[in-house]
Write a structure and sequence with these properties.
three-stranded parallel β-sheet, 11 strands, about 35% helix
């Protein structure tokens, strides 16, 4: 039995929704290439962190926001050097290069004062919500605005193990995190919020007889993942199925900047 507020994913309350295609240049994406696509607006090969297929560093949304004088933060229940937070805060040839990733993150912090608050998996849900609130309070002091990436990293990890019970518990934890961002956005109407995933894990299918979902693999799939969007301009994502690199390119366009792979024909409109 779920408590009140835990029976509906809060993304479904967002007014606009679409889907994202997640394949990398390697085919079915890993978290590094998927995170890099969302962070930089470029498709890359699996394993790359904030780099293209030729190992050239790519500007991330975090760096773009910092260059515009905005405050920035990268948060995750995963470790700071995990693939997704690393993609938004570092550059490395391969996701396994933890020392190089940490050094790159330190450079980002020194340059832009980026808050990196990760490794939150062992914190209570209440403490995670407090950490998000305090981070939002700090970032919102900047009149130029802010950019924050928050990840619930353990939905993926538990899905790799086909552990539906713990997957549900982390979806609920993510839902509680979303509630903090929703509350902030409600009281600060200029805030734009987007929820998506870098990939699907477990190749889940629906049993139409029992109306239950079940896993069919222990790896990633090429299934499209949802996009939920809220705020000014969010309607551009509504009922669209787009390549994942379109997401950061569109967010950057909201900031008045061209960003990512400008050879892609979809920019600036979404298809």
């Amino acid at each position: 039995q779920l408590d009140e507020g835990q029976d509906v994913f809060y993304g479904y309350y967002f007014p606009y929704a679409g889907y994202s295609r997640t394949d990398s240049l390697s085919g079915t994406t890993d978290s590094a290439a998927g995170g890099t696509a969302l962070a930089t607006g470029y498709s890359t090969t699996n394993g790359r962190i904030g780099m293209d297929k030729n190992a050239n560093s790519l500007q991330s949304l975090t760096e773009l926001a910092g260059s515009l004088g905005m405050s920035t933060a990268v948060m995750s229940t995963d470790s700071a050097t995990g693939a997704t937070p690393a993609s938004f805060s570092a550059h490395a040839v391969d996701r396994t290069m933890s020392s190089e990733i940490a050094a790159s993150q330190k450079q980002l912090q020194n340059k832009y004062g980026t808050i990196i608050s990760c490794g939150l998996n062992n914190a209570s849900n209440a403490d995670i919500k407090k950490e998000i609130s305090s981070t939002l309070d700090e970032l919102s002091k900047n009149d130029n605005g802010f950019f924050i990436m928050y990840e619930e990293g353990y939905i993926d990890k538990h899905s790799h193990n086909n552990d539906s019970i713990n997957t549900l518990s982390t979806v609920i934890r993510f839902n509680e995190a979303i509630s903090v961002f929703m509350e902030y956005a409600f009281y600060n109407p200029a805030t734009f919020v987007l929820i998506t995933a870098d990939h699907e894990t477990g190749n889940m299918k629906l049993n139409t007889t029992t109306n239950q979902y079940y896993y069919t693999s222990g790896g990633h799939s090429s299934q499209d993942v949802p996009i939920f969007a809220y705020g000014l301009g969010a309607d551009v994502f509504h009922q669209k199925t787009i390549k994942n690199i379109q997401i950061p390119k569109t967010v950057a366009a909201f900031l008045g900047k061209k960003f990512g792979d400008q050879t892609a024909t979809e920019f600036p409109s979404l298809k």
